[in-house]
Amino acid sequence: MLIEVILGLFIVLFYFLVIKPLVPMIKLKLQFGNDCLMKYHFFGGELWQQLKEMKISKDLIKRPRDLYINHPYKIFVSNFLWKIKISVADPEYYKVMLHNHQYYSKVNNINHDNLIQKGLVFSMGEKWKSQRTVLSESFEYDQLKSRLPMINEVCLEKINQICGDNVLEFLELITGQVVIRSFFGNSAEGIKINKKQIQIEIADLLNDMGELRLKSKYFFIKRFFLGTKGWKFFPTKIEKELLQRVYEVRLTIEKLIQKRIVEIEIKMDENENDVKQRDPDFLDVLIKEYLKQKQKGVQKITIDDILQQFITLFFAGTDTTAVLSYHCLYFLALYPEIQQEIREEVMTVCKNEMVLDDKIKKLHKLTAFINEVLRVKNPALRLLLRNCDQTHQVKDLTIKKGWNVIVDYQFQCFLSKHFSNPENFDYKRWLEAEPIKENHQFVYLPFSAGPRNCIGQHMAQMEAKIILSQILRQFQININPNVDPRWTARFLYQLQPGNCVQLQKL
Ligand code: HEM
Known about the structure:
54% of the residues lie in helices and 11% in strands.
């Protein structure tokens, strides 16, 4: 009897760990030949290997990048247990995928349903479409222009208070504050959660939630088998503390939203024009939509949606822009002659304190420089992991329901067929008429493409330009000789530690 049980168990394990993943992998290999790389993992998966590499490697993408340059493949297929993961690196294929986004749901790496799941990054179908429509206007050029004085103010305010040597943290304070003011205006000023400034607690919470999966194998396995229900299954002390923090953050934000609803309702009763006169922040826009739907009796957008939209924009807009600015500072420090050229441009164009729209347009070198940093060190190295929800065809590739899908768009930036001397950091290539050779519209996509591209891309670029101009005007940027820089990954692909550069007052 025991032998039969062991044999039965062995057959089940053999099926799930070997046959189930290997059969489709081999089929793909046979179909695509050299255009398909295949790596089978009996247990574990790429993730464990990446975690190991994160600890020792100086640059996390060096190995995959070199592999791709030496052997440009269309797809890379691997597995985690029985789950297939397919990375698509060929622009002809991911172009189709980016347009047909409805087949994929994004895997929420915060691992919780009540923080960002309902916001613009993770929502799907009609819900996503209506959110994108409501928010689009707030990210259009004219609306952005009206926020530029605020971005300058935040920058100057933080620069005046700068203390300590963690430049990345300082940048995150600026970008976090910009998202909060864009969303709440001044109404979230001075608010604290768990004795920390609101933006610091939200940023810490999102990082702690995201890192839990990587730090705790127990949580990782629960997440794999139970999804977000894993939180309810024998939570550890750390998990309980995180849930309490989620509760506190949600409570504070909900109070801010409710307060604004009352204010808007009162103003609407008194005089409708009054509400229209002020430059609307994101919260005004969302609440007006909420109240409009309430009046019509078709409540699609809820308070919880608004709350999660705020955390979503914070999540999508804070670290991304801070890390981009940090990478820029690093390259400015690494190449002092470039720093000097760009500082001269900034000093010539921006004579007074505010860096506004008319000046930003004239910062050609700075724009080219940021483009180059995004080419070589884009914090959004690849798109978020997706789950295929419906079997479908991408050209001659069949992607099956349940597979994990990755769009690896950054590798094209390292190919000499698209960029001359791609290994050189050369911002001047972006001042040429045609910086990209054999231009395929899907070669250089720092903000993705298609209907689900980055809604905040113009805001991010303007913000980075303001931050860099303000810093260049006041500081010499130097490499910190006492630290060992590493290009690693948290949520984003990023330079660590946060004090790789030093700011020295001019
Ligand atoms: C350097 C800065 C930034 C980079 C590199 C970046 C990059 C990206 C990328 C690659 C995507 C597509 C993600 C995917 O489909 O998996 C994306 C989506 C998104 N980004 Fe950004 N982003 C940046 C800044 C911002 C900012 C400042 C905001 C807003 C405040 C923002 C809001 C969003 C949102 C809401 C989405 C989801 C859009 C949708 O699905 O419809 N991003 N971003």
